[in-house]
Amino acid sequence: MSILKVCGIETEYGIVTRGFDVSPVTSSSMLINAYAGSMRQKIGWDFLDEHPSVDARGAVTDASYPPEIETHLVNAVLTNGARYYVDHAHPEVSTPECLTPRDVVLYDRAAEEIIRQSMITVNRLLPDGQEISTFKNNSDGKGNSYGCHENYLIARELSFGRLASHITTHFVTRQIFCGAGKVGSENGAPEVAFQISQRADFFEEEVGLETTVKRPIVNTRDEPHCDPQKYRRLHVIVGDANMSEVATFLKVGTTSLVLALIEDDQFPDWLVLRHPVAQIQSVSHDISMTTTCELQDGRKMTALEIQEQLLGHCQEYVQHYGDPTSGDAKDILREWESVLVCLKNSPENAADRVDWIAKRRILEGFAVRHGVSPLSAQMRAIDLQYHDMRLEKCLALRVGLRTIVNIDDVERAVTHPPVDTRAYFRGTCLARWPQNIIAANWDSIVIDTGDEILRRIPMMEPLKGTRAIVGDLLASIATVEELLLRLGSTDAPGWDPLMMPEPGW
Fold first, then answer.
1. How far is CA 460 from CA 1, 256, 422, 423, 464, in A?
2. Is there a contact between 212 and 88 (Cβ–Cβ < 8 Å)?
């Protein structure tokens, strides 16, 4: 049986300075430091278990390795279990581990609020006439792209070759409902006035380790951040950053269901694309959604028809195998079917949930009113403003996009972790004992009790360290010394040998 799809999103934000000239790395650091400075103590990232060069395919050449980790840049761990850091000259927020796609939406929205609070704080510190702004988009219009990456927990026993060939079909075609829309094209792609996806032009390989050049549709980074004997983490770099909550829900939810389909060997082998690199671009460039993709067996189908096939198979899967998304499958399937019906019969009716359609409506209205050309500077400025994180400027907030999480929950998620993954233990410890937590990462925290030995608490199971398992334990103690003592005792509530403190660091 497929394992539960613990998942999360990492979003790199575009950043712009006005009134002064500093590098993007410096401005990103200023932004994050302004936010982290309000914390009782800034907790740094522990890089001990970071191995981005490990490839799921085995040995590879040095030329295919990703860039070295930039350990010297700002890296903060937040009390909601998230990571906030500078990544390749962009501010990036990685959500905590989430058990459901709906929680991913919630913590992705919390990340937006963290970015907004950071902007407000840093701009108050800057002299008059100077400002830092951020954008939740994927391209600067100058040939540079930055990512919105997804992560999914999958079983180690699943053949990576089978996973890659099958999931590619979904990645190429899901953009029809989760593309963010974009004026023009880049990276040497044929010129178009408008396309469905911001990222599609930047993919040049089917499978590979890179994330910044020669980007692959399926990334092979084998860095599970949990027990490597049991799990993989599928690191997905092919998606757009969405302003629509429903689009984010569908992006993560449908992918979780398709991955379960693959894990349980229920994915139809005939539904594999013949030329995925060319097809991801051709699908994006055709806003009529009539372009066909050739399958390995020679038949041709549109992206919409392929998605209808995947929907049908996932409906049958959930009926016979159960829900791999911890309760969200019914809503995912309903939203998935609804949006495909809209895209098939009346695409404009999907403007309340599909970013590229909502954005295109704004652009077409502006072009008609002002008589500007599709690729004009004004149209590109509107495209960018759709993603503006400033509340008073953001066009996405004015087009009637449906929401699925409420603002009270979002505000709580800014500071509180999910209760049903190990993020609960990480976030609660950071909130309770910031002066004793030296560093943290996804699968451990490092504690200083004041003696000469630092102690690491490993968290190798994503579904351990939850409120149900350790909530009573954490509520019953006052200090980290008590925590370490209780975790080292086999009669501790929620005791787990995987969370035994390890001396030395």
1. 21, 21, 9, 12, 8
2. yes
Instruction: Give the pLDDT score at 69.
Output: 47
Token digits for 336? 């998935």
Q: Check: CB of residue 82 under 8 Å from CB of residue 70.
A: no
- Burial (CB count within 10 angstroms: exposed 0-12, middle 13-18, buried 19+), residue 300: exposed
pTM of the model: 0.93
Angle between helices 160-173 and 303-321 (to 10 degrees): 130
Scored b (16 or more CB within 10 A) or e, 76-87 reads bbbbbbbbbbbb
Q: For residue 500, is pLDDT > 90?
A: no
| Three-class SS state of 57 | coil
Give the pLDDT of residue 90: 94
- Stretch 180-195: mean pLDDT: 96
Residues 6+ apart with CB under 8 A from 203: 215, 216, 217, 238, 277, 280, 281
Q: List beta partners, residue 87.
A: 90
- Let me know how long the chain is: 505
Q: Is the dihedral of CA 40, 413, 359, 255 positive or negative?
A: positive
Q: How far apart are CA 316 and CA 322, in angstroms?
A: 10
Q: Which residues contact 462 (CB under 8 A, 6 or more apart)?
A: 6, 97, 153, 226, 231, 421, 422
Q: How sure is the predictor about 63, in pLDDT bands with cuts at 50, 70 and 90?
A: very low
Average pLDDT for residues 67-84, to the nearest whole number?
Answer: 77
The pLDDT of residue 453: 86
Residues 6+ apart with CB under 8 A from 187: 143, 145, 201, 202
Helix (H, G, I), strand (E, B) or coil at 454: coil
> Which of 39, 46, 69 lies closest to 438, judged by CA?
46
Residue of 55, 87, 108, 240 with catalytic role: 87
Q: Is the pLDDT of residue 65 over 90?
A: no
Task: Specify the pLDDT at position 143.
Answer: 86
Q: Alpha-carbon Rg of the chain, whole angstroms?
A: 23
Q: How many CB atoms within 10 Å of residue 403? A: 12
Q: Assign 358 a pLDDT band (cuts: 50, 70, 90).
A: very high
Sign, CA dihedral 318-153-81-137, equals negative
Establish whether 491 is a catalytic residue. no
The pLDDT score that the predictor gives to residue 424 is 98
